[in-house]
Amino acid sequence: MVSACARGTKRRRRDAIASAALSARIGSHVALEARLNGTIIACFDHHSVDLGQFSTDAAERAQDLRNGLPLNSTTSGASNIDKEIQLILKRLASHGLLEYRLTNSQSARDELIIEPQTPDYWPHAAQLDNSDILVLSRFAYLRRRGNAMVLESPRAGAAFQICNPTIAAILTGLATPQQLKQLRRRDGFPGIELFALLVDCQILVKIDPKRSSLRLTEGDGDLVLWDFHDLLFHTRSTAGRHANPLGGLYPYAGVLAPLPAVRPHWPGKKINLTKSHTTYSELAAPTAKLLRERHSFRTFDDGQPITLAELAGFLASTARVQLRWESRLDLGDCSPVVEYTARPYPSGGGCYELELYLAVDKCEGLTRGFYHYDAGGHVLTPINVRSHEFEALLAGAALAMDAQAAPPILITITARFGRVSWKYSSLAYSLILKDVGALLQTFYLMATDMGLGGCAIGTTNIDLFAKMTGIEFHVEGPVGQFAMGGGAKQPPLESQ
After folding, report:
1. Helix (H) or strand (E) holding 476
2. What's the whole-number mean pLDDT along residues 113-131?
3. Between helices 428-449 and 308-318, what is the axis angle to 10°?
4. In a domain, 43, yes or no
């Protein structure tokens, strides 16, 4: 029998290791410089950000962010310095220049390091009760990154670098649901603060024991339709929900030689096709002519802007619904009726999940603004968005195209993901991207035929779109962009 003394000792030992302190620190690549006028500048990677003017005492205390500043010391509002530090922290966080440490209060050892993945992330502790049942999100994953272990989820606003192996062991045990009070009895319990942060980031999920399906318990009905790999692919191959390097950065330029533009030929006898094909493809087929003339244009002539009539014709020819019908599935009793449409471009399974949103900068006959194209009614509907987000959308497109000015019209292609994943397993997101490719080529051919200029853009910001529209990123989100305008100038060959 275990004595009361032994139980008390055990409880005290658990309590001693069950508290943790959260602090903020600037990244190792960031330096804070205080100017004589009180301005604090954050310098990083050959860039700088003006954080504003602050008192001398606040500037001195801000230097403690190199090693870490406890967050609870800046939230009480007990002094003006506390308020200034809180403002500095918020501004640093908005630029992704902060990370957070959860430290064992007894050993001063880092339990984990929190790395923000979205600009608006701020660590919050969810309210937890001993009776709460927790389980790992089915979207969470633990991976090696260099010499570190990182816990991530495409739904989370932050990644968690695990410094204490005991934490990883406890978390893997949450593949099956467990009550919090059971977890707190375990040796090495890292403290409730950790679990509260993970629940806030949706890496851990509170579940309802009355619901039999864990998949239905986590998130909303639209999230049920997502497979793990599809949501991860969507969030990590676009901007907005991760802090990883993105774009044409040539990361392997010093590691491997570039592959040749044309694949080395296979050995064997060659069959020359030059003399075999007819002159039809070269002279008579208008499509072949359009394919040869198709180019990407990154600059547009403001003196000859695209008109509303041209835009209307472009949308009608490329994306308008041509036919609608219904069909009942052959799935036995209670088979559902599914709606279908036909449009000018092909779509996997006839899903036609793609939608078009237009950021109009310059179009003769159309007010500058943000619009949704209703392909069924062939109408544009204006959407009220915040001006700074609208400008950020256009600026992001210009940056992605390496252009000096925003395109006259930026078409954001979104997907209603559930339209495809309701039918297909394992390949839903890949089908969506194939549909995007088909639509982009359709855009190119029609723009060329109409004498307009266009350019496909390789990246989109899914978090920005979600903020502009109020639509959750997993319900409907960007999967492609196309810039277009009128009176395009012939681009140089290397940009085509």
Report:
1. strand 476-485
2. 94
3. 130
4. yes
Q: Is residue 476 part of a domain?
A: yes
- Residue-wise pLDDT tens digits, 23-33: 999 988 899 99
DSSP string, 271-298: ---TTTS-SIIIII-HHHHHHHH-----
31 and 125 in a single domain? The answer is: no
What one-character-per-residue DSSP string does 365-387 give?
A: TS-SEEEEEETTTTEEEEE---H
CATH number at residue 24: 3.90.930
**Is the pLDDT reported for residue 73 higher than 80?**
no
328/476 same-domain check: yes
**pLDDT number for residue 9:** 47
Whole-angstrom distance, CA of residue 162 vs CA of residue 405: 43
Q: What is the pLDDT of residue 287?
A: 85
E strand or H helix that includes residue 104: strand 98-104
Query: What CA–CA distance (Å, rounded) separates 10 from 184?
Result: 12
End-to-end Cα distance, the chain? 80
CB 491 within 8 Å of CB 297 = yes
Average confidence (pLDDT) over 324-345? 92
Check: CB of residue 360 under 8 Å from CB of residue 371: yes
**pTM of this prediction?**
0.89
- What gap in Å lies between CA 481 and CA 412, rounded to an integer? 5
